[in-house]
User: What shape does this take?
Amino acid sequence: MNYGEIKNCDIANGEGVRVSLFVSGCTHHCKNCFNPETWDFNYGKPFTSETEDEIIRLLSSSFVDGLSLLGGEPFEPSNQWALLPFLKRVKQELPDKTIWCYTGYLFDRELLGESRARCECTDEILSLLDVLVDGEFVQSLYDISLSFRGSSNQRVIDVKSSLKRGEVILHDLISGHIMS
Assistant: This one.
């Protein structure tokens, strides 16, 4: 897997201060994507053990709330295989840090159902996430007033509650509580 960028003090892609990893490779090709260079799976630099070590170091700062995965598309199957061991490491070494992930795939229909995104590690990756922002960016539904998403079709999902209850539970961005 390659990655396009690592932001070490990101406040736009999840709650609090985050370290954001922009993976390379995406087959959605959303119109007016904010990061189209990451559609190419070969864009950027290789994601190596040194890259992992650097992200862990950045995440270790007390003021950092967690990790955000963006792209490109983290749920492209080839990216999932590369991300799974890293996400396990993050949860093992930094269990208090949250993990957010942005995907163009729909949580309930494509990541839990049958789709080209599903592979042997999809369920395990989902179990490691705290919040998933799902759905392709749709320019005609763009709304600058939305928190942590670009278009109104996208959902901010509390993954752990959703998996536990077997239904989509949206993350309440204002009070920090979940709502159905």
About this structure: Helices lie at 49-59, 77-93, 107-111, 122-128, 159-165. The longest helix spans residues 77-93. The beta strands are 2-10, 18-23, 45-46, 66-70, 98-102, 131-134, 155-158, 170-171, 178-179.
